[in-house]
């Protein structure tokens, strides 16, 4: 087991290196000069050259990448061109805010999807199955940003039950799920985030549990008089590896694809930071944000892979 973990970690290193190359290169494909917003209108050629040297844009792109990679390994992702603050501090703070609602959305989606998918698998073709299938279809079909706008119109504008945007009433970015005055700001973005994984995992659970129920050993257990509760546990245990794999991917998608949702709700997470970095052409901030999000996706897949091994001994690792 430990040898397998070591191998998986070693395999992640070249993946992370490839991710760093892509993150660094993609932002240079966009048109425009990244330091244009920093140059005063009356700046001389000497001033422009000095600014380029200050931020390292006077070097060839290859040398810029290796300089950036050497600093990134030590935790130095550079300085934001707009705020003049360390990129790592801004991205870490925003990533924590994104993680708050993404993890909550995944937990809610996982619990509800397990219930809906299991009920559908035990009642194939019946009204319960049709309702669960309809919910999953809506979850994967409706654009999440559109769902967010609808929820804001209903719960914030018309019914005035929940706040529409922000992270706190006083303008602060402090947050706690255990304080209602703060937690209520996260409900709408969390529900919006949970819709897609709810639909995807419901379908996956329904398929996996239904496949387990069709196996001969399940019929034998029932013939021996095993209660339906125990049958459900056996079915879920066999479906759990597949459910974990799908849920891990969905968590990665939520963390990396939160830009639209966080923009709709003005939630100060990585999505909102990346949106502002794109609009202001803040290259260091954009590179750092993309790198952290990509590496988190790699880490999530590694963790899910290890969890699958723990929950299902039949999965042999070497």
UniProtKB/TrEMBL annotation:
<dbReference type="InterPro" id="IPR045621">
    <property type="entry name" value="BPD_transp_1_N"/>
</dbReference>
<feature type="transmembrane region" description="Helical">
    <location>
        <begin position="145"/>
        <end position="162"/>
    </location>
</feature>
<keyword id="KW-0472">Membrane</keyword>
<keyword id="KW-1003">Cell membrane</keyword>
<feature type="transmembrane region" description="Helical">
    <location>
        <begin position="99"/>
        <end position="124"/>
    </location>
</feature>
<dbReference type="Pfam" id="PF00528">
    <property type="entry name" value="BPD_transp_1"/>
</dbReference>
<comment type="similarity">
    <text>Belongs to the binding-protein-dependent transport system permease family.</text>
</comment>
<dbReference type="InterPro" id="IPR000515">
    <property type="entry name" value="MetI-like"/>
</dbReference>
<dbReference type="GO" id="GO:0071916">
    <property type="term" value="F:dipeptide transmembrane transporter activity"/>
</dbReference>
<dbReference type="InterPro" id="IPR035906">
    <property type="entry name" value="MetI-like_sf"/>
</dbReference>
<feature type="transmembrane region" description="Helical">
    <location>
        <begin position="285"/>
        <end position="307"/>
    </location>
</feature>
<dbReference type="GO" id="GO:0005886">
    <property type="term" value="C:plasma membrane"/>
</dbReference>
<feature type="transmembrane region" description="Helical">
    <location>
        <begin position="182"/>
        <end position="201"/>
    </location>
</feature>
<keyword id="KW-0812">Transmembrane</keyword>
<dbReference type="Pfam" id="PF19300">
    <property type="entry name" value="BPD_transp_1_N"/>
</dbReference>
<feature type="domain" description="ABC transmembrane type-1">
    <location>
        <begin position="95"/>
        <end position="308"/>
    </location>
</feature>
<feature type="transmembrane region" description="Helical">
    <location>
        <begin position="244"/>
        <end position="265"/>
    </location>
</feature>
<keyword id="KW-1133">Transmembrane helix</keyword>
<protein>
    <submittedName>
        <fullName>ABC transporter permease</fullName>
    </submittedName>
</protein>
<feature type="transmembrane region" description="Helical">
    <location>
        <begin position="9"/>
        <end position="30"/>
    </location>
</feature>
<keyword id="KW-0813">Transport</keyword>
